[in-house]
Amino acid sequence: MTRSTYVFTSESVSEGHPDKVCDRISDAVLDAFLAEEPEARVACETFATTNRVVIGGEVGLSDKEKLSSYMGRIDEIARACIKDIGYEQDKFHHETVEVTNLLHEQSAHIAQGVDAADNKDEGAGDQGIMFGYATNETEELMPAPIQYSHAILRRLAEVRKDGTEPTLGPDAKSQLSVRYENGKPVGVTSIVLSTQHLDEAMTSDDVRLVVEPYIRETLPEGWITADTAWHVNPTGKFVIGGPDGDAGLTGRKIIVDTYGGAAPHGGGAFSGKDPTKVDRSAAYAARYLAKNVVAAGLAEKCTIQLSYAIGVARPLSIYADTFGTGQVSEEQIEKAVSDCMDLTPRGIRTHLGLNKPIYQRTAAYGHFGRAPDADGGFSWERTDLIDALKAAV
Fold first, then answer.
1. What's the pLDDT tens digit per position in 164-198?
2. Active-site amino acid positions
């Protein structure tokens, strides 16, 4: 039996977190190649540490001469990301950091399993399992702990970048413990916020005075009470931040990127991967389907699992779980989502319009629970499948 009263915790990290710096650079490289060629192949990994950024992986364009010229832009792309995030530290500065580009052409052995040829459909870029999740506990149909953990850091980034709070640095982490009653979020039992600050004289209490108003305005009214525990910069000073303080790597924040631990995860990271990689595109499709199931009123919460094999076009399995909240059976939902959307890699990319340079913006503050953009960004957050799903069950 599902518990109805409990406390659940999720964390988020800011765009200046070392791992998120790497995610941002990897996705910026991806966007640059997709802007040149919508069918570009990219699997880009980034590592960052003191005064150093290393970029590796494989890329592919149909025009080999263009591929060579684009390799020369990687340094510029990385520095632009670091500058926009806000790093101008002595040991991690967008102007002086050493950037090493180790990208190379995509393996022909991978391409042969993915590319469509003759009568063979385009296959999945890898094997694996992908999960999507939605719940009606927030307007965005996301779990409350991760949604509000992201929202706090996005708000702090806004006031840092617009000059309202110049003492804040780019690197930050948030964590919320949310109390549930009758299965619905009703309050926060504890708030953890660690943020880099540029004034070495600031104490933890000084930092709290800066950030507390923004946290209070971000959380729903009444969620913070006299019993809420606050832990702001609990270790004390946090002046050295970003890759100078802790090395970063693409793809290490997969729970932050998705549902904050409230739903299963297949294990595959997103950033730096073009949408032929089902680690990314099928996870987006699974979220899209789960969100539309909940938005259609077919369930209060829903998990969708998809599975793929490299070189095979169609999913090997489709699984739905509505946790006892469904208005129809899980079997009906599984059939309906299959009927309403082509879940081959190309079908997903076409339905969601994924062959576009829309990925750099996903690198921080979550890939889900965001508003769809007019240019096609976050297309997997649309709820345009409601009528089709209702008709199919």
1. 999 999 999 999 999 999 999 999 999 999 999 99
2. 17, 19-20, 45, 58, 173, 238, 246-247, 252-253, 273, 277, 279
